[in-house]
Specification:
P-loop_NTPase, CobQ/CobB/MinD/ParA_Nub-bd_dom, 7-stranded parallel beta sheet, alpha/beta, DNA_Partitioning_ATPase
Length: 237
């Protein structure tokens, strides 16, 4: 059973959107999928309630209220975590997951907050011992927009050697992550397709492929990473 968690200390970064779309992808592949929604707002649970019966089923658990008990036949548990988790609460949440995905918005405030949050996560023992793997996703990025100069001003004080990756928008965030050996996996654009799908209890993987071809292309690096050994923690000793 694979356990994947979407989290970030700052709200509004698209955790629920990534969680529901990731769940819809695995469901479309014939996998048994459960979404555990730890956020009292219940966005992921509301999405499941809207999901049409003729689509691959996804089970939901209101994890902020009910015990997270999933059938043994479950292939993937996708965990949607609320903003603001810190300290002991963060530690308890991280211990539930094999893989952590941190979505980050392209703004100085969000990138600064993500840097602090990632530092805090690294203090959690499981991550240090490679029992949990972490990756970052740039989310809701406006295409043809470069914020490189802004990022220099935000994180420019971090003089870190790095190997340049193939994106400009998160240029300096990549420097920071490279130093920590945390992969910067994918850049997902701001697209109306996510809103159209969400309103119907669907993910972009449920929509007509020609309609969402560009979005599906941007998901490929993330899905490839999740299917690779790099995203799977080493067995506990």
């Amino acid at each position: 059973m694979r356990k994947i968690m979407l989290l970030n200390a700052k709200g509004g970064c698209g955790k629920s959107t990534l969680a529901t779309n990731l769940a819809s992808y695995y469901a479309s592949q014939g996998k048994a999928v459960v979404i555990a929604d730890f956020d009292r707002q219940g966005s992921s649970m509301e999405w499941i309630e809207q999901r049409p019966q003729d689509r691959p089923p996804i089970r939901g658990i209101a994890a902020w209220r009910d015990p997270v008990r999933v059938p043994r036949s479950t292939d993937y548990v996708i965990m949607d975590v609320p903003a603001g988790a810190h300290g002991a609460d963060l530690t308890a949440l991280v211990r539930r997951a094999h893989t952590l995905i941190v979505p980050v918005l392209p703004s100085p405030t969000d990138i600064r907050a993500a840097a602090h949050f990632i530092h805090e996560m690294l203090l959690v023992g499981k991550i240090v011992r490679d029992e949990t793997r972490v990756a970052v996703v740039a989310n809701r990025v406006r295409e043809n927009t470069s914020l490189q100069n802004t990022m220099e001003s935000v994180l420019g004080s971090m003089k870190i050697n790095y190997s340049t990756l193939n994106t400009q928008i998160y240029h300096n965030l990549e420097r920071f992550l490279s130093r920590l050996k945390i992969p910067f996996i994918a850049t997902l654009r701001e697209s109306q397709n996510y809103l159209v799908a969400d309103a119907r209890g669907l993910g972009i993987f449920d929509l007509t492929r020609s309609q969402v071809a560009r979005d599906l292309e941007q998901w490929e690096p993330l899905l490839k990473w999740l299917e690779s050994k790099r995203s799977i923690p080493e067995p506990a000793r």
